[in-house]
Amino acid sequence: MSAKKTAQFDPQKTLESIENEFEMVQVLNEEGKIVNEEAMPKLSDEELQELMTRMVYTRVLDQRSISLNRQGRLGFYAPTAGQEASQIASHFALEKADWILPGYRDVPQIVWHGLPLYQAFLFSRGHFVGNQAPEGVNVLSPQIIIGAQYVQNAGVALGLKKRGKKAVAVTYTGDGGSSQGDFYEGINFAGAFNAPAIFIVQNNQFAISTPREKQTAAKTIAQKGIAAGIPSVLVDGMDPLAVYAVVKEARERALNGEGPTLIETLCYRYGPHTMAGDDPTRYRTSDLDTEWEKKDPLVRFRKYLEERGLWSEEKETEVIERAKEEIKDAIKKADETPKQKVTDLMANMYEEMPANLKEQYEIYTAKESK
Ligand SMILES: Cc1ncc(C[n+]2csc(CCOP(=O)(O)OP(=O)(O)O)c2C)c(N)n1
Ligand SMILES: [Mg+2]
């Protein structure tokens, strides 16, 4: 039996009208054709080539990181292939002064923001040097606690506003992350304080093995921003030009004092959740993989650039070879970094060491000097 509805009070209708407002923004379709001229971002030929270069480089970095992990030369690693438009094109819309608060899968963005690659490898190994971004590289360490970076992002953004900086704070989480309390607290706080923040949800369809449909009753994750009173966008996360355009606009709005934006990027991870041993064939069909591979961000962007005479096989090979060389050098540098001692871990934990830790510190200093 369904409840009687009146024209004056129909919450289901209100919900549907909000949900149906969220059309996916797309600029470049799967065939590499521009389908939305109006939304086409103003990027020079060189910038378009640089964006492609970074996406190709990042795919190589992912492949190499997976093999290094299998060889036992890396520790924690969450694969990124499939998410290049969502990650790299969103970052491409930022400036050096902006702050990035990444999740564990967002290592590429902080590397492109200036974290030396060997430090990203040390982060993977749990080495404290991996968490010490050089001065002027405005990134925090990748967050492992799902969603926690959303609250911090609201705070960092408010800090930037109070200090009168011309910069925004940008954070990333996943579809699963959008179910966490911290997600709602973060977007609500940023909305209430009109903070210059960008909140990105990379909806890669799964939270480990939990499909998006089981994550929430909401039709889109973007619509969750409505409750916080902040503008929200649903974007094709396999389309680098659309992702760039929406993040660029969100940044401009934030700098104009117009507050935060929530952006849902629809994307897919081709690999496993992490290299710790989950088997995606247990929770995904190969048909679904194939469906998403057809949307590949590199394939469609390559088609578009080749058509315009801005990309070639030679150019791509050059990028791949350079990436391989730089990755080899970076892993060598990570290997040459002195091994982490227990006292290093303690010394880097607190600004001022508590008394009980001081005691242990002395015990370990004595042990390590033997
Ligand atoms: C607070 C918290 N709960 C649970 C976990 C365990 N956990 C690690 S990753 C993950 C799934 C996250 O999925 P999603 O947010 O969609 O991000 P994705 O890994 O797909 O990028 C979970 C539940 C955690 N790290 N932190
Ligand atoms: Mg996910």
UniProtKB/TrEMBL annotation:
Subunit structure, as described in the record: Heterodimer of an alpha and a beta chain.
Coiled-coil regions listed: 313-340
Organism: Domibacillus epiphyticus
Protein name per its UniProtKB record: Pyruvate dehydrogenase E1 component subunit alpha
Top-level taxon of origin: Bacteria
GO BP: branched-chain amino acid catabolic process
Alphabetized UniProt keyword annotations: Coiled coil, Oxidoreductase, Pyruvate, Thiamine pyrophosphate
Entry function: The pyruvate dehydrogenase complex catalyzes the overall conversion of pyruvate to acetyl-CoA and CO(2). It contains multiple copies of three enzymatic components: pyruvate dehydrogenase (E1), dihydrolipoamide acetyltransferase (E2) and lipoamide dehydrogenase (E3).
Entry annotated with the keyword Oxidoreductase: yes
EC numbers for this chain: 1.2.4.1
Pfam families: E1_dh (PF00676)
Any one GO MF annotation of this record: pyruvate dehydrogenase (acetyl-transferring) activity
TM spans (from-to): none
Every Dehydrogenase E1 component domain range: 53-342
Recorded catalytic activity of this chain's protein: N(6)-[(R)-lipoyl]-L-lysyl-[protein] + pyruvate + H(+) = N(6)-[(R)-S(8)-acetyldihydrolipoyl]-L-lysyl-[protein] + CO2
Cofactor(s) for this UniProt protein: thiamine diphosphate
Root EC class: oxidoreductase
NCBIfam families in the record: PDH_E1_alph_x
Signal peptide location: none
